[in-house]
Amino acid sequence: MLSFVLGNIVCILTDFKSRIIPNKVTFPLFFLGWVYSFFYGDLIFSAVFFVLLTGIAVVGFILGGVGGGDVKLIAVLSVWMEKRAPYILLIASFLGL
């Protein structure tokens, strides 16, 4: 879990600085997320959330609302999510966070 937090901090800082989210950070996070889901989480839940959230992000990318790095980060986030995440996302979307 610490690698997820540190990796996201690196992504946030590089995105603010150069508007680029490096693959050398997102790809290992993506792989580690699957490993984490396999051992500590629910692999099926992560796979379903990955398909749903990444699909929505790709549509946003096609429409020009989000960039490719955002799609990569959403894919990483979806793999690391736990079963309480949909509720957190729902509350955050209503609050406008």
Structural summary, described in words:
This protein is an all-alpha fold and 97 residues long. It contains 5 helices and no strands. The two termini are 22 Å apart. The mean pLDDT is 83.
State the gist of this model.
81% of the residues lie in helices and 0% in strands. It has helices at residues 2-18, 23-39, 43-63, 68-80, 85-95.
Written as H for each helix and E for each strand, in order along the chain, the element string is HHHHH
Dominant shape:
globular
Beta-strand proportion: under 5%
- Biggest beta sheet summary: none
Terminal residue distance: 22 Å
Q: What integer is the average pLDDT?
A: 83
Number of strands: 0
Helix and strand content put the structural class at mainly alpha
- Summarize the amount of helix as a percent range: over 70%
Low-confidence stretches: none
Computed over alpha carbons, the radius of gyration is 13 Å
Count of discrete alpha- or pi-helical segments spanning 4 or more residues: 5
Question: Can you tag this structure with a few keywords?
Answer:
5 helices, 97 residues, mainly alpha
Summarize the helices and strands and which ones pair or pack.
Blueprint: H1 2-18, H2 23-39, H3 43-63, H4 68-80, H5 85-95
Helix pairs in contact: 1-2, 2-4, 3-4
